[in-house]
Write a structure and sequence with these properties.
InterPro entries: Lipid/polyisoprenoid-bd_YceI (IPR007372), TTHA0802/YceI-like_sf (IPR036761). The protein is mainly beta and 190 residues long. It has helices at residues 17-23, 77-88, 161-169; strands at 24-27, 33-40, 44-50, 52-58, 62-68, 95-101, 112-122, 125-137, 141-146, 150-153, 179-189. The protein is built from 3 helices and 11 strands. Residues 1-21 have low confidence and may be disordered.
Length: 190
């Protein structure tokens, strides 16, 4: 019994938005998203998303993103509630923090593919994840999009099998994967 859960997103050193606005770019939460899918019974895929709360990207390439787990949206409110309460324990661990650095040369010129090493903190555990991305710079913004799906395992972040079993029990004991496919589209405005 396993569960695919969104662990990631991207970049978070947690510097305030005004600080990023003065030295680079601020994440536009309305035009950014992190998507994932839960998988049960080995083949039933249930798409979901998490809206980024805040973030930024400096001219030097430092970036950070903060995701609010309470914004998990599967299209089914009871599923959202169960993911938050039983699996993520979002009352104790409400945020996902992602941070890292991209080569500053990526912030100008033509779009480029690269792999960005990030520090992801979820459920109180920090892990390094490499994200394959396309960086699309423009005069007033920078877009960063995943170029392939990243598979994230909740157990790697200390989310226990017990949490997964509690979630599974709410759907009749169906097997749920603890691995999730994750993608993202981020827009940083100047």
């Amino acid at each position: 019994m396993k569960k695919r859960i969104p662990t990631l997103g991207l970049f978070c050193i947690l510097i305030s938005a005004p600080s990023f606005a003065e030295t680079g770019y601020t994440l536009d939460p309305k035009l950014s998203n992190v998507t994932f899918a839960t998988i049960k019974k080995q083949f039933v895929v249930e798409p979901a998303s998490i809206k980024p709360l805040s973030g930024g990207l400096t001219k030097e390439g430092q970036f950070s993103i903060l995701l609010d787990l309470k914004t998990v949206n599967t299209g089914v409110s009871i599923r959202d509630q169960r993911l938050n309460e039983l699996y993520f324990e979002s009352m104790t661990f409400p945020e996902v923090k992602i941070s890292g650095k991209v080569d500053p040369s990526m912030l100008s010129g033509n779009p480029k593919n690269t792999t960005i090493e990030t520090e992801v903190t979820l459920h109180g555990v920090t892990k390094t994840i490499d994200f394959p991305v396309m960086v699309v710079p423009s005069e007033g913004f920078v877009m960063v999009n995943s170029t392939s799906t990243i598979i994230v395992n909740g157990a790697d972040f200390g989310i226990s099998t017990e949490n997964l079993n509690k979630l599974s029990a709410t759907v009749g004991g169906l097997a749920i994967s603890d691995k999730v496919p994750l993608n993202f589209n981020l827009l940083f405005d100047r």
